[in-house]
Design a protein that fits this description.
The protein is α+β, with helices and mostly antiparallel strands. The protein contains 11 helices and 11 strands. It is rod-shaped and about 170 Å long. The two termini are 64 Å apart. The structure holds adenosine-5'-diphosphate. One of its GO terms (biological process) is osmosensory signaling via phosphorelay pathway.
Length: 468
């Protein structure tokens, strides 16, 4: 059953139950506490008595007294007085005699129905009878305690009276119900919207953003939903980006591996079949095979690095090391490698020891990566610079070249995995190197920065804290 139907049903049932309960309790309390006379019974008693009196030949005391006594025995709470036309008592069931003035008698008639509830005053009713043109009066009185106390029993004598209290009563019953119905239906509407929005959450399309500024639980739930939907969208974007990267990697990899492999196979077959003309050609062929194999080896190394980083298994073994010594060794390697090539190499490493707590092999890999890039992508500048500077608790490693550089718009993506300037050129890498460098630097709680002015200077600056 849907919530609105359930609410209507509950409301209806509770209205019926509460009304029944109200009436039943009213009647019950009436029965328990409302014993006594009401106006109707008093009138009926008087009427019965007047009928009996009417049967008598005269209305004198000796004729009337037995009737009054008989009724007094049946109704001991009631006092009956038989009054002659001059206002004097002919008989009083209380045995008293009075002489009522005309005003006193007239008052009884005038106040009859209105003056029923005087605090301590007895309630009196007056009736008149006539015999042979002579008026007589029957006075009936009783204490207010002997009357019924219940409102229902006493006041509800006409439909008008009934409406006068039933309408307010019904209204007071229904208003809370309608208010709670309104509350429930607004809650229901808001939950419905939330439900619909949740149903449509999907990683492919934008989620519905719900507006609910109220501070209650549903408002909080709506805000949680909004932030959850945004998170899902963000994560879906990241997954999509990652997937695209993987696809790109696979297609680049198959291309980048196939090209050198084809060359290796071609040259190896030539050598194997003895189809080279002289020793020189053999040397050249084997040099190409060696170069291409090294390139493939490097690619596979990078792939291994990626796999390690993906599995969060970049193991880092920190120990104190002399960084200037490590940097001097790297510089010497590259000077040897570039010897005879039109490259000028600038080395700016202090002679004294620069101690830092690092993983030496990881830092060496990062620096070599930057140096390889400077040679590969910055070769137009024919310059390679390597430096080390100590700045208080921080050491700075600098690798620079004067080649084509990196345009400002590429700076924010350059350390992202698989990113290659201009989508990459033939024979260039997979766009992994700089992302690995960044991971290594950050695993040392360091920071990497790029400053590049194309064809003037491109500088990579690694800042590492000396002690972790
Ligand atoms: P790869 O592993 O393919 O070399 P990197 O992450 O090392 O990729 O570099 C990403 C891109 O950054 C390269 O494709 C290249 O275009 C650019 N790049 C990196 N270093 C330099 C540099 N010193 N000068 C110019 N461009 C560079």
């Amino acid at each position: 059953m849907k919530n609105p139907t359930r609410i209507w049903l509950i409301m209806l049932i509770s209205i019926v139950i509460s009304l029944l309960l109200f009436v039943w309790l009213l009647l019950l309390s009436g029965k328990v506490w409302d014993t006594g006379y009401d106006l109707n019974t008093l009138n009926a008693v008087s009427q019965e008595m007047l009928n009996a009196i009417e049967q008598q030949n005269t209305y004198e005391k000796n004729e009337i007294q037995p009737i009054l006594d008989q009724f007094h025995i049946r109704h001991p709470a009631l006092r009956f007085e038989w009054i002659s036309s001059d206002g004097s008592t002919l008989y009083d069931t209380y045995g008293e005699t009075h002489k009522y003035s005309f005003e006193q008698l007239a008052d009884r008639f005038i106040n009859m129905p209105n003056n029923l509830w005087g605090e301590d005053k007895p309630i009196t009713l007056a009736y008149s009878a006539n015999k042979n043109g002579q008026p007589y009066y029957l006075l009936l009185s009783l204490s207010s305690d002997a009357m019924k106390q219940g409102q229902l029993y006493f006041f509800v004598r006409t439909f008008k009276a009934l409406y006068s209290w039933v309408l307010p009563l019904l209204l007071s019953f229904f208003v809370p119900y309608f208010l709670s119905l309104w509350l429930f239906s607004s809650v229901n509407r808001r939950i419905g919207k939330l439900n619909q929005a949740l149903n449509q959450v999907n990683i492919r399309s934008d989620a519905i953003v719900l507006e609910d500024k109220s501070k209650d639980e549903i408002g909080q739930l709506t805000r949680h939903y909004n932030s959850m939907a945004q998170r899902i969208r963000r994560q879906a974007d990241e997954i999509e980006q990652f997937e695209n990267g993987r696809k790109l990697l696979l297609s680049n990899l198959s291309h980048d591996l196939r090209t050198p492999l084809t060359m290796i196979l071609g040259y190896a077959e030539t050598i194997h079949a003895g189809l080279y003309s002289d020793e020189n050609e053999l040397r050249t062929s084997s040099k190409v095979i060696l170069q291409r194999s090294r390139y493939m080896d490097k690619l596979l190394d990078q792939l291994l690095d990626i796999a390690r980083l993906d599995g969060d298994t970049l193991e880092i073994h920190l120990a104190p090391h002399n960084l200037s010594e490590i940097m001097r060794k790297i510089a010497a390697d590259y000077m040897l490698f570039l010897d005879g090539q039109s490259f000028s190499v600038e080395v700016d490493i202090p002679d004294e020891d620069v101690q830092a707590v690092i993983d030496a092999s990881l830092i060496e890999r990062a620096v070599r990566n930057l140096m390889d890039n400077a040679i590969r992508y910055g070769n137009e500048g024919h310059f390679l610079g390597i430096g080390l500077v100590e700045e208080g608790d921080v050491v700075c490693i600098i690798v620079k070249d004067k080649g084509r550089g990196i345009a400002p718009e590429d700076h924010k993506f350059i350390f992202e995995r698989f990113y290659r300037v201009g989508g990459g050129r033939k024979g260039e890498g997979l766009g992994i190197g700089l992302s690995i460098v960044k991971e290594i630097v950050e695993s040392h709680q360091g920071h990497i920065q790029l400053i590049s002015t194309p064809h003037v200077e491109t500088l990579f600056l690694i800042r590492l804290p000396k002690n972790k």
